[in-house]
């Protein structure tokens, strides 16, 4: 056994029996920020969704904290300590910011603990405090993204998985959001993220994986990947 | 003038009951996108239960509505577990056709067991009692049924809007996958929602037995009216259901009194068509 917090071993995934992931393995160790990068349609989101239990691999297995979670239903993953902020935010559009956040800690029944976590995410994202009673769909894209991250933190996960935080955000906001991710990580949450903004993602990550058409084609420390010619050519247009 | 007030009051009280029947249908529809075709027959089952409890065990409808509500809650939950959950997400029509089959089964089962006879409870606590205000007479069974229905409706609204469970139900309705990611077991929520939808119509049926005769066809009209109310009020909206139900109750009473009793459903369906033509998403549609 490895010492990894999360280990994904040779998973194969398919949509309606059309295979899209052909044997992906990856690891996340406690305290790390790990980035998965790759072109559109490479299978990044599918990999994330499979880890989060929204779909199950047809082959291979997934271990989290020494436990086999390959077939664990998605609603049970959060109690194991994995929180997933999916692509496109997926806020509950007609509910308020506050209600969205409360649902983030749905599995926690202790009111005092929930209030304490609300205070925590409000101090991380002061804007959400101001928007507490605003209906989620009426907020700007950036505010929605912060709300989605905050909601993902409300269960105080051991591993936070983030799919395409930068989607639809202006560059300065992307930087700000990624800085927050670093801050969350410093406070002790392990992070697995998927990004289109390859350079920005690798700059904050400790390690990275490059996925291409359902396979891992390159992996290593974020610095090595940043300096690698193939990554620079393919994803940073350099 | 007092006749007009009398007719309006009758319509209002009927509307309050319709609202509770419709709220059950609306809840299921709003959360699961499933039309429970057996909704009217759930009401019939509740009425039979309440009738037999009254006839055999002398439990008054004013008490036995609790049992009717609980019984149809379980009936609803079983319907979800054994019928609806198996066909949901397959063909869009599948749950509709399956619950249609269930409605036929329930209707014919009661026809076979209890005959087509109309049965009404005699000597209930509220029977024949009325409140008389000048020229206006309000039957106590109708008044109690209407006010109770309204109270249950408010409780349901409170549950949906102000409790974490209610938010979880709404979240499941808006984005099932995202709800799962919050740790919400959405299959359980569906089960609960089908049960709650059943409980609404079960309570309504239980109360209704205090003044209405039960027979195997009694659910059909109520089911149809509930359907109109939901379509008019906007799917999943409880305030919408209340508004539409009261509108239907009033139109039905006014047309029935001032035009002709046989005309009342003509007026109701005409109004339905008019509303849908002007606002296809319903009065309170999303
Ligand atoms: N629901 C689905 N049904 C069928 N095929 C799908 C579905 N979702 C994704 N796919 C296919 O699976 C492959 C991988 O998609 P995935 O969403 O994982 O890519 P991605 O790397 O996240 O891309 P992007 O950067 O555009 O988000 C693609 O070929 C896509 O067309
Ligand atoms: Mg993606």
The counted number of beta strands of chain A is 10
Which sequence of SSEs, written as H and E, runs from N to C of chain B?
Answer: HHHHEEHHHHHHH
Largest sheet of chain A: 6 strands, mixed
Sketch the topology of chain A as an H/E string, one letter per element: EEEHEEHEHHHHEHEHEEHH
- CATH 2nd-level architecture of chain B: Orthogonal Bundle
CATH superfamily of the largest domain in chain A: P-loop containing nucleotide triphosphate hydrolases
CATH topology of chain B, what is it called? Answer: ABC transporter involved in vitamin B12 uptake, BtuC
| Percent helix range of chain B | over 70%
Bound heterogens, unique: adenosine-5'-triphosphate, magnesium ion
| Helix fraction of chain A by DSSP (H/I, runs of at least 4) | 25-40%
How is the secondary structure organized here?
The complex is a heterodimer of chains A (238) and B (286).
Chain A: E1 6-15, E2 18-28, E3 33-38, H1 44-51, E4 59-64, E5 67-68, H2 74-80, E6 82-85, H3 97-104, H4 111-124, H5 126-130, H6 141-153, E7 159-163, H7 171-186, E8 190-195, H8 198-204, E9 207-212, E10 215-221, H9 222-227, H10 229-236
Parallel strand pairs in A: 3-8, 3-9, 6-7, 7-8
Antiparallel strand pairs in A: 1-2, 1-4, 4-5, 9-10
Helix pairs in contact in A: 3-6
Chain B: H1 2-32, H2 39-57, H3 61-87, H4 94-114, E1 130-133, E2 136-139, H5 140-162, H6 164-174, H7 176-181, H8 186-208, H9 218-233, H10 238-259, H11 264-278
Antiparallel strand pairs in B: 1-2
The complex binds adenosine-5'-triphosphate (ATP) and magnesium ion.
């Amino acid at each position: 056994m490895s010492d990894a917090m999360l280990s994904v071993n040779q998973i194969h995934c398919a949509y309606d029996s059309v295979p899209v992931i052909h044997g992906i393995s990856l690891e996340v160790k406690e305290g790390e920020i790990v980035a998965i990068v790759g072109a559109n349609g490479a299978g990044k989101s599918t990999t994330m969704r499979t880890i989060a239990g929204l779909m199950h691999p047809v082959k291979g297995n997934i271990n989290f904290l020494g436990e086999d979670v390959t077939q664990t239903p998605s609603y049970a993953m959060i109690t194991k300590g994995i929180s997933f902020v999916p692509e496109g935010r997926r806020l509950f559009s007609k509910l308020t910011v506050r209600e969205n956040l409360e649902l983030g800690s749905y599995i926690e029944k202790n009111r005092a603990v929930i209030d304490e976590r609300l205070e925590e995410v409000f101090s991380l994202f002061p804007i959400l405090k101001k928007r507490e009673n605003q209906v989620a769909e009426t907020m700007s894209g950036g505010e929605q993204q912060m709300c989605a991250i905050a909601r993902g933190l409300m269960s105080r996960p051991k591993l936070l998985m983030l799919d395409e935080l930068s989607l639809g955000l202006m560059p300065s906001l992307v930087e700000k959001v990624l800085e927050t991710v670093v801050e969350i990580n410093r406070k002790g949450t392990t992070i697995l993220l998927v990004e289109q903004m390859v350079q920005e993602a690798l700059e904050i990550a400790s390690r990275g994986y490059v996925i291409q058409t359902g396979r891992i084609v390159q992996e290593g420390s974020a610095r090595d990947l940043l300096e690698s010619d193939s990554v620079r050519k393919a994803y940073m247009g350099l | 003038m007092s006749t007009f007030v009398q007719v309006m009051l009758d319509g209002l009280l009927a509307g309050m009951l319709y609202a509770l029947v419709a709220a059950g249908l609306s809840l299921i529809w709003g959360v699961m996108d499933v039309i429970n075709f057996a909704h009217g027959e759930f009401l019939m089952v509740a009425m039979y239960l309440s009738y037999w409890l009254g006839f055999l065990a002398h439990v008054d409808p004013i008490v036995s509505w609790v049992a009717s509500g609980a019984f149809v809650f379980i009936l609803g939950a079983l319907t979800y577990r054994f019928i609806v959950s198996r066909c949901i997400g397959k063909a869009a029509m599948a749950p509709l056709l399956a619950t249609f089959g269930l409605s036929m089964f329930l209707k014919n089962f009661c026809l076979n067991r209890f005959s087509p006879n109309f049965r009404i409870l005699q000597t209930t606590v509220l029977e024949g009692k009325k409140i008389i205000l000048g020229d206006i007479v309000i039957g106590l069974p109708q008044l109690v049924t209407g006010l109770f229905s309204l109270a249950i409706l408010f409780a349901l609204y409170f549950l949906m809007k102000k409790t974490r469970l209610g938010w979880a139900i709404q979240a499941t309705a808006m984005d099932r996958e995202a709800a799962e990611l919050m740790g919400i077991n959405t299959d359980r929520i569906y089960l609960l929602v089908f049960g709650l939808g059943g409980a609404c119509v079960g309570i309504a049926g239980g109360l209704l037995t205090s003044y209405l005769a039960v027979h195997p066809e009694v659910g059909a009209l109520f089911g149809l009216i509930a359907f109109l109310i939901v379509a008019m009020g906007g799917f999943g909206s409880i305030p919408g259901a209340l508004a539409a139900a009261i509108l239907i109750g009033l139109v039905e009473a006014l047309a029935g009194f001032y035009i002709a009793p046989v005309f009342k459903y003509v007026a109701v369906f005409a109004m339905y068509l008019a509303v849908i033509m002007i606002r296809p998403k319903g009065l309170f549609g999303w």
